Amino acid sequence: MKPQAEELTPGEMKALGAFFQSKVVGPRPARDKELLAVGKYIFDRGNQFSGLPACGSCHGAKGLGTPQLPRLAGQHPRYIEDQLKQFNKRERTNDNAIMHTIAAKLSELETHAVAEYIATLD
């Protein structure tokens, strides 16, 4: 994205900012109630058997993030799943290896469930 952004004029940047600011982000409606229950459990409590910490313990109880950590609430589930997979494969490395350790502890079902749950947060 950086090469494209470098080509923009200040006016184009301002127009792009206004466009994205006008977009309304909202929670995704629940689809599979049982899957969401698993995702909520992982987000709120983690998995004591695999040593997985709760997502909310770092990203905030509602997934709104902190000054140091990103907001998760409302993110598209595919995006969350892709990021977790990239952390697990060490393809994404901007986290001081914290998320590498966490992503490695998630099962495929847990990854999918927590991604679906995060999408419902507002």
Automatic annotation (TrEMBL):
<dbReference type="InterPro" id="IPR036909">
    <property type="entry name" value="Cyt_c-like_dom_sf"/>
</dbReference>
<keyword id="KW-0249">Electron transport</keyword>
<dbReference type="GO" id="GO:0046872">
    <property type="term" value="F:metal ion binding"/>
</dbReference>
<keyword id="KW-0408">Iron</keyword>
<dbReference type="Pfam" id="PF00034">
    <property type="entry name" value="Cytochrom_C"/>
</dbReference>
<dbReference type="InterPro" id="IPR009056">
    <property type="entry name" value="Cyt_c-like_dom"/>
</dbReference>
<keyword id="KW-0479">Metal-binding</keyword>
<dbReference type="InterPro" id="IPR050597">
    <property type="entry name" value="Cytochrome_c_Oxidase_Subunit"/>
</dbReference>
<dbReference type="GO" id="GO:0020037">
    <property type="term" value="F:heme binding"/>
</dbReference>
<keyword id="KW-0349">Heme</keyword>
<keyword id="KW-0813">Transport</keyword>
<dbReference type="GO" id="GO:0009055">
    <property type="term" value="F:electron transfer activity"/>
</dbReference>
<feature type="domain" description="Cytochrome c">
    <location>
        <begin position="34"/>
        <end position="122"/>
    </location>
</feature>
<protein>
    <submittedName>
        <fullName>Cytochrome c4</fullName>
    </submittedName>
</protein>
